[in-house]
Specification:
about 325 residues; about 5% strand
């Protein structure tokens, strides 16, 4: 069963890894980053709600006292992560944006220590320092920040919202089904993002076009379908299944493959290759983030303490 869980976790990471490349194809076809993320949220949310309503209706039942958390989850953990990440990849390589987002465990360490005032192991601080050093290598600070500054801010914001995802996920008990949480989170994010994306003004003819990036041509409709079905619905479901079969620590470790998968897929499909400093720094970032995440596994991240809920998806992009 453990081997099957690992295989499913790897599948989830690679499915999530397609999100950046597919979004760039949609951007090349004529959609803005906000429109692309709305298409992803709305399409995946509706699909999951319909499927769950047919095969697992109990998963959609949310206790009334949990509604405020559901709203926060939709706004911060889903909409915030997606919007800021999609904005970041308009200015940064997909792999670099993913590296920044993967520093979320370090932000969780800081939250646990300074907001919750919980003592954390020394290795958590070491992991945070290592991850920060890796980011300095990624952006090549000795050359005055080679990468786009605004893009880096968007990526850092995505990391902050991703940290909120981990913290909010830990706030739900066994009375909320993780698949139902994801479905309502996606649908809620689509509603929140509607005024920003303005789908009523969207150029829907963009889905009739094809986009060419890195020498590869892909129909926009296929890119959207892949983003919705593979990079979102299948990825989230696989992530839930994997975490239920594995320990939280193992699941979190395997989730680091998403950074590698996203970079490799972006290189193959859209010709975005990371430079040597991005690769070296990326390895350092992943090592530091994993060290911080492992060190804080099991520590309370909120008050009052409740039974920890296994994370629905290690890395939600």
């Amino acid at each position: 069963m453990k081997k099957a869980g690992l295989a499913i976790a790897v599948l989830a990471s690679w499915c999530f890894g397609f999100s950046g490349a597919m979004a760039k194809f949609l951007g090349e076809a004529g959609l803005s980053s906000n429109e692309a993320v709305w298409v992803r949220m709305a399409g995946a949310g509706v699909l999951m709600l319909v499927v769950l309503a047919l095969v697992r209706p109990r998963a959609l039942r949310i206790p009334r006292r949990r509604l405020p958390l559901i709203v926060a989850y939709a706004v911060v953990a889903v909409a915030g992560v997606q919007v800021l990440f999609f904005q970041a990849i308009t200015r940064l390589p997909v792999g670099v944006a993913l590296l920044f987002e993967f520093t979320a465990p370090v932000l969780v360490v800081l939250w646990v220590r300074f907001v919750r005032r919980v003592r954390v192991p020394r290795s958590a601080y070491i992991g945070a320092v290592v991850a920060f050093a890796g980011l300095c290598v990624v952006v090549e600070v000795w050359q005055g920040m080679v990468l786009d500054g605004l893009g880096l801010l968007f990526a850092a914001g995505a990391a902050a919202c991703c940290a909120g995802y981990f913290l909010l996920s830990d706030s739900f008990g066994d009375d909320v089904d993780p698949l139902g949480l994801i479905a309502w989170g996606l649908a809620g994010a689509a509603v929140v993002l509607a005024p920003l994306a303005r789908p009523w003004n969207m150029d829907w003819s963009a889905f009739e076009r094809s986009a060419t990036l890195g020498g590869n041509t892909l129909p926009a409709l296929l890119a959207a379908a892949w983003l919705i079905v593979v990079a979102t619905v299948i990825a989230y479901i696989a992530g839930v299944t994997a975490v239920r079969r594995l320990s939280a620590a193992v699941g979190s470790t395997v989730s680091s493959l998403e950074v590698i998968a996203g970079a490799v897929i972006a290189w193959i499909l859209i010709g975005e290759a990371l430079g040597p400093y991005q690769i070296i720094g990326g390895v350092i970032v992943i090592a530091g983030a994993l060290l911080a995440q492992q060190a804080t596994a099991g520590l309370p991240t909120h008050e009052p303490p409740v039974p920890a809920r296994k994370d629905p998806s290690p890395t939600p992009v």
